[in-house]
TrEMBL record:
One of its GO terms (molecular function) is acyltransferase activity, transferring groups other than amino-acyl groups. It comes from Acerihabitans arboris. This is GNAT family N-acetyltransferase. InterPro entries: Acyl_CoA_acyltransferase (IPR016181), Bact_Acetyltransf (IPR050832), GNAT_dom (IPR000182). Keywords: Acyltransferase, Transferase. Residues 1-111 form the N-acetyltransferase domain. It comes from the Bacteria. The keyword Membrane does not apply.
Length: 111
């Protein structure tokens, strides 16, 4: 977490109440070469199951959008596994659209 917080293109938002963490969202801001606007990637987004339905996710996502706009981003992207159907419904309600093509290559270090 220290490495994340020390990076100039990373932001971690935390929602808390009575010294209890209710939710977190980790943002990574990525400059673009070929496109006019940069983009913000949500790398981790979680709301405590007991706090869901109370607007915590909405508040975190709204703040993420404010920060993305301040960083001159014109979009936010999030990768969400197919099995996370509740999360998909949340993202659709927030105005996200599905972008179906995504490639991933796992790499291994020598050590």
């Amino acid at each position: 977490m220290q490495q994340l917080l020390a990076h100039p293109d990373e932001t971690l938002l935390v929602a808390e109440e009575d010294n209890s963490i209710l939710g977190v969202v980790s943002l990574h801001f990525i400059p673009q070469l070929a496109l006019a606007g940069d983009f913000c990637r949500i790398s981790y987004f979680c709301v405590d199951p007991a706090a869901r339905g109370k607007g915590i996710g909405n508040a975190l996502e709204s703040r993420a959008q404010e920060l993305a706009l301040a960083r001159r981003c014109d979009r936010i992207e999030v990768h969400c596994h197919a099995r996370r159907t509740d999360a998909h419904r949340f993202y659709y309600r927030q105005g996200y659209a599905e972008s179906p093509l995504y490639f991933c290559k796992r790499i291994k270090r020598d050590n």
